[in-house]
Amino acid sequence: MHKFLFSDPSIKPSLLLRRTRREGASCHPVNASVPDVQLIVLSRYTMQINLRDYQWEVVQPALQGKNIIIWLPTGGGKTRAAVFVTKYHLETRGGEGKVAVLVNKVPLVNQHYENEFWPALKDTYKVVPISGDSELKEHFAIAVRNNDVIICTAQILQNALNSTEEEKHVDLTEFSLLIIDECHHTQKDGVYNKIMCQYIEKKHQRKRGLPQILGLTASPGTDGANSFEHAKKHILQICANMDAAKIASSKDCVKELEDTVPQPVKSYDISEERKQDPFGDTIKQMMRTIHSHLDEPTVPGKFGSQIYEQAVVELEKEGAIDSNRKKRNCALHLRKYNDALLINETVRMIDALEYLEEFYDIEKTKNILDQTDRLLLKVFYDRKDVLRLLASNKEYENPKLNTLEKILLERFSLTNSRGIIFTKTRQSTHAMLDWIRSSHLLATKIKAECLTGAGVNSQTKHMTQQEQHNVIQKFRNGDINLLVATSVAEEGLDIRECNVVIRYGLITNEIAMVQARGRARAENSTYSVVAKQGGREIQREFTNEFREDLMKRAIEAVQEMPPDEYRLKIRELQVEGIVSRKVKEQKQHATKSGNYPKDVRFFCRNCNEAVCHANDIQIIEGMHHVNVNPNFKIYYRVSGKINLPRKFEDWEPGGSVSCRKCGQEWGMEMIYKSVPIPSLCIKKFVVELPTERRTFKKWKDVPCQMEEFNYVQFCERNHSDLLADFLFT
Question: What is the DSSP letter of 113?
Answer without folding.
Answer: I
